[in-house]
Design goal:
GO molecular function: hydrolase activity, hydrolyzing O-glycosyl compounds
Family: Belongs to the glycosyl hydrolase 2 family.
Protein name: Beta-galactosidase
Pfam family, one: Glyco_hydro_2_N
Shape: globular
Strand content: 25-35%
Distance between the termini: 87 Å
CATH class of one domain: Alpha Beta
Helix content: 10-25%
Keywords: Glycosidase, Hydrolase
Number of helices: 15
Radius of gyration: 32 Å
Oligomer: single chain
Structural class: alpha+beta
CATH topology of one domain: Rossmann fold
């Protein structure tokens, strides 16, 4: 019999940690303090804003008199982080660990039929303050980054059982023999040998008896272990398309009366690797996973409702994902129940290491092993969990040293599942342990974020990843560097993190927070702050004239996110050595708020969700156009591929090219086989003479009964000689690596060399600087004087101070132009292209962009010239610029992971600013680098020359 203790409890927020010294755990002393009410379960920051440290809980309960001669057990589903328990002023025990269940025997401490008092002292993770409590300091314990999640955040109950109790039941399904091995641990709490009647039943999904076994067993005092192998006749296998679950029950009787019982659902399934391919139930499966934090708008660490949990799992499956990777927090029981029932593969996640958290302290090895042991023991009967992931991006020697020992421990605790020792392979390269294997298999596990522009070079990087160099010799990929750390060429590979980011529709989100949210929890606060920050940034840059309705800005970000995700996935699926990928992320919150395909309220983010779904389909047709931006007299290479997880089938393939005014300029019909795996469908060197403007390649694949099984589209732009006519204007040039001058000479553009006495009416173009060129700084001082005296100077490289890097704080003050070009605050590549965070580079309507699309976020034809650095909060006219947010807030104070993203910043990509009596134009766009390679770079250069001569 079980009684729930959930409900309204008393709590003392012991902010100064006085409770132990003053015996507040005694009921008489507790009663004298100022205590408040709190719901159990809940995270206490939902009641007291950002509270962390100590909370002392109290509740009172009555148990039936019939429990007088029973073993009584107090159960906690999860309390974060350290728990100490008293009943009726008597000590019970303690537990350490914030995300797994635990229990205490309390029958000698309670009084049946009378009121009992339960007091629970909890120490939460210390994250935001410098408190040091009972040996636990700031960032020293395992922490999930979504919220503090302090206190009793999951259910509490009390139950009665007989003297023969079930301590553990572990089911090992084996599909090769269609058996289920029941490992049963019975504890005899008596001092004598006792006879137990043990009955095991397996029921079908409809409740019909499948198999049973009953025996009389002599149990000695203490623990007694049984291992029974039951044959499952006509076994039905659990899969993502047919999540068939059996119901198991184990009953222990003594003298004909039930002493204890246990029930759990389980599935017959096996997940492993065969011939360098993932297999589920002896069938190959290509893994398409979604990264998942498990943060919720109100419940924080726990779903706001079962319906919300169902929705996010359903949307993941509908988007084509067959696996979810919960990240650094064991998922709650209810959520895992749903994954079992709905049929989604799940990664078993441990809260043992998260990007330098917990920090290095002498406690680190203990907390790692403690969490690993408890998480696996608690969840090893989960059918949906097919793999344990132990570490992520290892960054410290002590953790690298623990890789093997923790993998061995995981194998001892659970022989049935695959074990991945480290996602990302940062330490020594990843290893996987196959089911029932004690020695590892080397394995490439890769994390790579392309940012917003998956251009030709970036796409090729995916194709080259983990490929043998010998096989690439003589191909277009020769010399291309693939992705990942500690990668072994030719070895099975999984890209376990990829994706881009975009801001959710904060207008709609904040409306939901105002109607259904909690105003004091971090998600509510940072969603509102982010929306305010974006509005300020748009106003400061003048981009609010492009996006007067900020919702349109958020939706366009989501479009860019979708395009980037789609191209990354297409590139990944064209690499035959890669056997799956994990998109970061299904839902985004805290400092990875941009990564989600769904917002925190579980609403799909328009084109992000839709385009990722397109790329996840079982049959896709990736298109490559090389180059993407085309000189009309040179043409371009068009390639169409097929990728299919299904059996080969006859197909009719239609390839069309449509101009921007809707005219069809090319058509090709192919009757061919759409092969299982990766195949080349069509390739042509397209003659583009006479082409001008934007075009779209459309591909449609129909099977032999006329059903469309795959389709795709990809755009390109063609520039005619007339569009790229060299300007005739007076200019001066100072160059340091001859790239700019060589191009101008080749195109017949007349110029003079810059010298200090140059006429101020002649504008100056400044080429790229050679790194560490001693003459560069001296030349810049002369150029500054030229501008101050009334001249116009254009810088194609800005060597300002770089901030927001791995070690530098983000500078958010506005900066005047007096020290340009050296005085600008620069953002590094990670920040301006955006790893998994939206970094939107916006183009205004301006003569510099004549003949090019404007009033939009850069993508498409801008992919090569797209900036990788930007000038932060610089004063002047923003002709093009970037808006983003700090995704590593308060790095020095280590607050990241919990308070959401940092401040919104704005930066210039193309800036025009007064300078003395003259002007400067500074650009971080990659114009000079792509001269004679990309017509867009040429067009921009000519536009700049024309603009500065007007």
């Amino acid at each position: 019999m079980t009684l729930s203790l959930d409900g309204s409890w008393d709590i003392i927020y012991d902010d100064a940690n006085l409770g132990i010294a003053n015996d507040w755990y005694l009921n008489e002393n507790f009663e004298k303090q100022d205590f408040e009410k709190i719901d159990v379960p809940s995270c206490w920051e939902s009641v007291k804003e950002n509270y962390e440290g100590v909370g002392i809980y109290r509740t009172k309960f009555i148990i039936p008199e019939a429990w007088n001669d029973k073993i009584v057990q107090l159960n906690f589903e999860a309390v974060n982080y350290k728990t100490e328990v008293w009943i009726n002023d008597q000590v019970v025990g303690f537990h350490e660990g914030g995300y797994t269940p635990f229990n205490f025997r309390v029958d000698k401490l309670i009084e049946a039929g009378k009121e009992n008092t339960l007091v629970v002292r909890v120490i939460s993770p210390i994250i935001l303050t410098d408190k040091y409590i009972d040996g636990l300091g700031r960032q020293e314990v395992p922490m999930w980054r979504g919220a503090i999640a302090g206190g009793i955040w999951q259910s509490v109950s009390i139950e009665a059982k007989g003297t023969l109790g079930l301590q553990d039941v572990f089911i090992e399904p084996k599909i090769d023999s269609n058996t289920a091995t029941f490992n049963i641990e019975i504890e005899n709490t008596e001092i004598d040998i006792a006879q137990a009647e043990v009955l095991v039943k397996v029921l079908s999904k409809k409740g019909e008896l499948v198999v049973s076994k009953k025996e009389l067993v002599e149990t000695f005092p203490g623990k007694n272990n049984l291992q029974w192998v039951l044959n499952i006749p006509d076994a039905k296998y659990w899969s993502t398309t047919n999540p068939y679950l059996y119901k198991a029950s184990v009953v222990v009787k003594k003298s004909g009366e039930v002493s204890d019982q246990w029930t759990h659902k389980f599935g017959m399934r096996e997940f492993t690797v065969v011939n360098d391919q993932f297999y589920l139930n002896n069938e190959p499966i290509y893994l398409k996973a979604a990264f998942f934090e498990g943060l919720y708008p109100v419940g924080l660490a726990y779903p706001d409702s079962k319906e919300m949990a169902i929705k996010e799992i359903r949307l993941a499956k509908e988007a084509g994902f067959n696996m979810i990777r919960p990240w650094r927090k064991p998922a709650p029981k209810m959520w895992l129940d749903l994954c079992d029932e709905m049929g989604v593969l799940t990664v078993g996640s441990l809260v043992v290491e998260c990007m330098h958290r917990p920090i290095s302290s002498p406690r680190l090895p203990f907390v790692v092993e403690n969490e690993l042991r408890k998480t696996i023991m608690n969840n090893r009967n989960r059918t949906c969990i097919v793999q344990w992931e132990l570490f992520n991006e290892i960054n410290r020697p002590i953790l690298a040293q623990m890789l093997n020992s923790m993998s061995v421990l995981a194998r001892e605790l659970d022989p049935t599942r695959m074990i991945l020792d480290e996602s990302g392979g940062w330490g020594e390269g990843a290893n996987i342990y196959l089911p029932f294997e004690r020695t590892p298999k080397k394995f490439n596990d890769i994390h790579h974020y392309s940012g917003s522009q998956v251009d030709e070079d970036e796409f090729n990087g995916y194709l080259a990843t983990a490929q043998n160099k010998e096989e690439l010799e003589g191909s277009k990929l020769e010399g291309v560097k693939g992705y990942g750390k500690n990668v072994v060429p030719g070895m099975m590979t999984y890209i376990s993190e990829l994706g881009y980011g975009s801001t959710p529709n904060l207008t709609a989100n904040n409306k939901e927070f105002s109607e259904k949210g909690n105003p004091i929890v971090a998600p509510t606060v940072y969603h509102k702050a982010l929306d305010t920050g974006y509005k300020t940034a748009l106003e400061k840059t003048g981009f609010n004239t492009i996006y007067p309705d900020i919702t349109s800005f958020y939706l366009e970000q989501q479009k860019m996110h979708g395009i980037a995700n789609k191209r990354m996935i297409e590139a990944t699926r064209l690499n035959d050595i890669v056997k799956g990928y994990c998109v970061h992320a299904l839902v985004g919150g805290d400092w990875v708020i941009g990564a989600g395909l769904l917002d925190l309220w579980r609403n799909p983010k328009t084109l992000v969700y839709d385009m990722t779904k397109e790329a996840n389909q079982e049959q896709i047709t990736p298109i490559r156009i090389m180059p993407r931006n085309v000189y009309a007299n040179k043409g371009t290479l068009v390639e169409v591929y097929g990728v299919s997880e299904l059996a080969s089938e006859d197909a009719n393939i239609l390839i069309k090219i449509i101009s921007e005014n809707g005219k069809e300029v090319f058509r090709k019909t192919i009757k061919n086989t759409f092969y299982n795996g990766i195949s080349a469908i069509y390739k042509t060197q397209l003659n583009t003479e006479g082409f001008k403007g934007s075009y779209t390649v459309n591909v449609e694949v129909k099977n032999d009964i006329g059903k469309i099984v795959a389709s795709n589209y990809q755009s390109f732009d063609v520039f005619s000689e007339q569009q790229l006519e060299a300007p005739k204007a007076k200019i001066a040039v100072i160059d340091f690596d001859n790239t700019l001058t060589s191009f101008l000479n080749a195109k017949g553009v007349e110029f003079v060399a810059f010298h200090p006495e140059l006429d101020k009416s002649i504008p100056v173009l400044v080429g790229k600087a050679k790194k560490k060129d001693k003459n560069y700084k001296a030349s810049v001082e002369q150029l500054r004087k030229h501008a101050q005296g009334g001249g116009y100077v254009v810088f194609f490289e800005v060597l300002g101070e770089r901030v927001a890097g791995p070690e530098d704080p983000l500078v958010l003050k506005e900066t005047d132009s007096s020290k340009l070009p050296f005085g600008t605050q620069m953002f590094q590549k990670w920040d301006t292209r955006g790893g998994w965070a939206a970094k939107s580079h916006i183009v205004t309507k301006h003569p510099i962009f004549d003949g090019l699309p404007t009033e939009m976020i850069m993508y498409g034809l801008y992919e090569n010239v797209h900036p990788v650095v930007a000038m932060a909060k610089q004063q002047g006219t923003y002709i093009a610029g970037a808006i983003g947010y700090d995704h590593f807030p308060d790095k020095d104070n280590m607050r990241r992971h919990y308070v959401g993203p940092g401040d919104v910043w704005w930066a210039a990509d193309v800036l025009e600013t007064p300078f003395g009596k003259g002007k400067m134009l500074l650009s971080t766009m990659r114009i000079v680098e792509f001269l004679d390679k990309d017509p867009v770079a040429e067009k921009l250069l000519y536009n700049i020359i024309n603009h500065i001569n007007r």
